[in-house]
Design a protein that fits this description.
It is built from 13 helices and no strands. With 242 residues, it is mainly α.
């Protein structure tokens, strides 16, 4: 319905006398524009964020020439942006898809002058969304994290906010890797037979996470040594020389 409402606004713009465009709200058109702007704002509040993004340029142009009244429509767009930016990822399988969709949409909005100032204020919530996605996926889907690691590079404000969280991410990665290493060694201590190839799968995954975390700067040498030391008892029990 949002697209249909915007089409109505564009038709209204086409009938607006040229001498009035861009200079205010002519009295004969005031009621139509106020009613249409109110309707568009309500539709935005009931529309998914991606559809708002896909209509962003049309919304921007219609407000820029005041066919739609910014004072009525912009608050709805801000509410939609705020809600999307602050929503926490909860399902691991879709965490990075959701974050990538959000950041791509916000970057498109940032390109438009009318939306840019407010979207910039969402940099910190977006950085938190990145951190939440890392927490959900770093141990289970390191390849997805690596593929999306540079997603904020084109947004300096959000990138800077994300960098502020690097210490917390390093601490999280170290803790989870260390726990996984200890579980591996404990499982070997409880084993009653030589390890099958399948029993080494957790170790393969652990090495992949360590490689990705090290590449992205979230695992330094001293922390890697601590994790490897926790693996040693399991290797010794399996007869692996370290």
């Amino acid at each position: 319905w949002l697209r249909e409402a915007l089409l109505c606004a564009e038709e209204l713009q086409a009938f607006l006398p040229a001498e009035f465009q861009g200079i205010g709200t002519p009295v004969p058109y005031r009621l139509q524009r106020e009613s249409l702007s109110t309707s568009v704002a309500e539709l935005i509040r009931n529309t998914q964020f991606p559809e708002v993004v896909s209509s962003a340029l049309r919304l921007h142009n219609l407000m820029n020439n005041r066919t739609l009244i910014p004072e009525l429509v912009l608050p709805a767009i801000r509410d939609e942006v705020r809600s999307a930016a602050q929503e926490r990822p909860e399902i691991r399988e879709f965490a990075w898809t959701d974050v990538a969709t959000l950041i791509s949409g916000l970057n498109r909005l940032r390109e438009l002058e009318m939306f840019h100032p407010f979207v910039e204020t969402m940099a910190r919530p977006v950085a938190r969304r990145m951190v939440e996605a890392i927490k959900l996926t770093i141990m289970a889907k390191p390849a997805e994290f690596l593929a999306n690691y540079s997603i904020l590079d084109s947004w300096p404000t959000a990138y800077a906010a994300f960098q502020e969280a690097r210490g917390d991410i390093r601490s999280l990665v170290r803790s989870r890797l260390l726990d996984a290493a200890k579980r591996f060694s404990a499982s070997r201590a409880e084993a009653t037979s030589p390890p099958a190839a399948s029993s080494m799968n957790p170790l393969v995954s652990l090495v992949e996470v360590m490689t990705v975390a090290s590449y992205c700067g979230f695992l330094d040498r001293s922390d890697a040594v601590v994790v490897c030391d926790a693996l040693v008892p399991g290797f010794v029990l399996d007869g692996v020389k370290t």
